[in-house]
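re: the backbone from monday

yeah here it is again, tokenized this time
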């Protein structure tokens, strides 16, 4: 009889229009909220709610040709961020900061199609100095005024 090994939970996701589809396997290295100005501008909202994964855990299964990348070099920390989004509907999907997190990819939690038993909850908050005073997360998170020097090994 074949041994049944538990499958790592796969999270599926897509952009708003559904052109770009992806899946991620394994556990994220980190789940973060970031309130920096660039995350606010980029989303047009309060900030970003992201999971950080090792690049090898992410598979873009559909819509590569529609994925556009904006090279955001005007970041507060000085290290450029590649922000990838759907060229059709504009959903923010992935970010990469090759200086702070080489080999890592940042996946937006809002594009994840979480199934029963899957949840998303942050463990850290970046750029709390820019967080709206009325925004209370009511969670035990590790809070940073800005951003830690490196994303790995936090
Ligand atoms: Zn789209
Ligand atoms: Zn940010």
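seq for it, each position gets an aa:
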């Amino acid at each position: 009889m074949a041994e049944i090994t538990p499958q790592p939970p796969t999270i599926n996701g897509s952009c708003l229009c559904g052109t770009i589809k992806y899946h991620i396997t394994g556990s994220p290295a980190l789940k973060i909220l970031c309130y920096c100005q660039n995350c606010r501008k980029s989303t047009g909202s309060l900030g970003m709610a992201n999971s950080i994964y090792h690049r090898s855990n992410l598979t873009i299964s559909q819509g590569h040709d529609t994925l556009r990348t904006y090279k955001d070099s005007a970041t507060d920390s000085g290290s450029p961020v590649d922000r990838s989004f759907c060229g059709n509907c504009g959903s923010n999907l992935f970010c990469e900061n090759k200086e702070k997190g080489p080999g890592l990819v940042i996946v937006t939690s809002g594009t994840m199609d979480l199934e029963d038993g899957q949840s998303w909850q942050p463990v850290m908050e970046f750029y709390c100095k820019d967080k709206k005073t009325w925004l209370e997360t009511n969670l035990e998170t590790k809070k940073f005024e800005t951003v830690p020097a490196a994303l790995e090994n936090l």
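The chain has one domain: 10-146. The chain has one helix and twelve strands.
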